[in-house]
Every structure is written in C-alpha cells, then in structure tokens.
C-alpha cells in the first residue's frame, strides 16, 4: 500500500469515527488489518477512540477496544485519555467499557493534573462519578489536581451539589480531607460555598459533623468562613448564610467576636498545662488581641477624624494667608502689645496647623487603627488641634476692628475642662485595657505554677 493510499485510509477512519459506523470500521479493518496500529504514525492529535468517546458512540467504542485495547491509554495533545472525554460528557456506559478494558486509566492525569474524576466533578456528572469511585477506585476522590484543588473544591466552584454529595457519601474520604484547603489560597470547600453564596451547599456542609466541628478554620489570608461574607456583595442570600453560620457557632477572626448559637452553653475551660504560660501571656499577639478596637464604628471614626483634621488644616492655613487685624491703623500695630498678641496668635495657629497635618498623615500612612492605643493617640492629637485652634480664635478676636470679646478666661477654662475630661477618659480606657492584660497574665502564671 502506497503512502497516499495509507493516508486516505486513515482519513477515512477518522471520518468513520465521527459517524460511529461499526460496519464501516469493520470494512476498513478487513482491507487493512494494521490500520489501528498506524494511528500513532499520523499527525492527528487524537485517536478515533477519543472522538468516539467524546461523541458517545458506544458500539463503535467497543469495536475499537476489541481490536486494539491499548487505545484506552493513548493521550491527545492535552494528555487527556478517552476516559477523560467520556467522563466530561457524562457517557456512563462508555466509562464502564473503558474501565473494564483498562483499570489503570482512572489514575492518568492530563497536563492540568486532572484525572477523569475531576472532569466528572466539574461538569456535575453524578453517575459517572459514582462509577469512577466504585470499588477499588474510591481513593481517587482524594487526588488533588494541578492547582491544588480537590474534587470537592471543583464541585463547589461549579455549583454541583448532588455530585458533591455523591463524592462525600460514596468516596472513601477521611474527615481531615473534608476540611482541606486548596494549595494557593487555603480555602476549604465551606469557604468557597460561602464566597459563592451557595445557600444549599452551605446548609449541606454544615450538616456534616466534622466540617461543623472545624468551623473556624482560617485560609491563608486569615479569614474564617464567616469572614468571607464581609468581602462579597450583600443580599438576602448572604444574610441567610450569615444566620446559618452564626447559629452553628462560627466566629469572625477579624473582630474576634464569637457567634454562639442561642441554645449553646458557655463553658470556662481552664488554662492548658501543655503550653508555656510565659509564651501564652507575653506574646505581642496576645496584647494586641486584648487591645483590639472592637467598635463597629471604626471606619466611621476614621472618616470623622480625617474630616476634622483636614478642616483644621484649611482654617489655620487661611489665618496665615489672610491674618486678622490687617485693617487696623498703623498706629495700633506700632504698639508692642498688639505685636506680641499677633506673635502669640501665629504660634498657636502654627501648632494647630502642624498637629492637624500630623493627624492627617497618621490616618493616610496605613498604620493599623484597630487598636485602643492608636485610636487614643489620634483622639488626643485631635484634641490638641482643637485646643490650639480655640486659642488662635481667642487671640484673633482682639485684633479685629469693632469686635469685643467678653470673659476670655472663662471660655478658655471651660474648653480646657472639656478637653481634659476627654483626654482623661481616653487614658483611663487604655489603662483599663492594659490592666486586664496584666491581670490575665498573672492568673495564667499562677495556674501554670500551680499545675507544675
């Protein structure tokens, strides 16, 4: 047979595989018994079995495997076997035939590190998945793909709840594997279900005791499943999911608030003797955790402080550009008293201006503000700005023509009293937080020494 005739015969074979005609296949094999062996010599990126498995030609697939069973392990340009394609398309009977012909085909991975079961999970082919994990192939459920995702991750990503249930119920899965995070982001399947706001999937996952017990697992960004809701658009589904998570006793790692179900009882757990009390108490993480600002108005406070500091900067800058008393007669400016008063005004104004710029710089510098100490410093700094702004005003009034100011000292002392009360409250609050840390540390050290 010449090369031209051989190429024509092979082209005809591929055309026949598209039609799935068994009779034409038998005719071609009768004319050239080696035709299926010459497939590897062609430039085609896939075999006729790939085409047959993809299109669901069951009888044609059986005939190909009868004449040459090795075709079940041939791969295309993406390293996919015919079993990959049949699994993705959901051809259950073809999957059965391929597995009967070559049992090892289920474990072959393509260029993305995915075995046939990964494709069944991605496409929601529940019956195919059941067939692939039956018998000795149940361990295939615990195979990661090239991106570090499990079958469960793929089911949730593509929203195939029934397939997920099948994999969990039929597959030989360990409890820890259900809470396994993906390699890149560390998201568990519950993280993904919450992020994609899959209400039914979340409800099902919470019904699994092992997942519910490990409710507060964090991903690589430090987010629990409940934290994920803070980074998705708010709607009724996200609200319902939040209620389910709160009822299940989930907590948010960002604000350190534990959400217990209404019927749950709070049990005091004594300090563990397996951990060094000194390390547990004196770690900076522990101190920062206690001092963390728990108010939900943190962003609102940040915005108000930024607005106030910017306003003060603008006002004090305007005093320099258009100073008070410019319309007074020159004879009054010749007085040493007025010159001294104007000098004090500029001093007070400059202090207020610099302090307001400092507060603004601190707010925009990215310094973490979820902390009582930092917020206290900002509050004190803002009080300083406002105090010297009041002093600037008091010194500016006498420099304006036809203006009279009453009892200056009464107003000044009233303001200083108010500022002092605010500063005192802030200092007491910070000291109280630090005292709680010291008390807790002493208590832990006492129990640790007692346990030894």
TrEMBL record:
It is a peripheral membrane protein; Multi-pass membrane protein. Keywords: ANK repeat, Membrane, Repeat, Transmembrane, Transmembrane helix. InterPro entries: Ankyrin_rpt (IPR002110), Ankyrin_rpt-contain_sf (IPR036770), PGG_dom (IPR026961). It is found in: Cell membrane; Membrane. Residues 297-396 form the PGG domain. GO terms for cellular component: plasma membrane. ANK repeats lie at residues 78-110, 112-134, 185-207. Pfam families: Ank (PF00023), Ank_2 (PF12796), PGG (PF13962). Gene3D superfamilies: Ankyrin repeat-containing domain. The chain crosses the membrane at residues 303-321, 341-364, 376-396, 408-432. This is PGG domain-containing protein. It comes from Vigna angularis var. angularis. The gene is Vigan.06G011400.
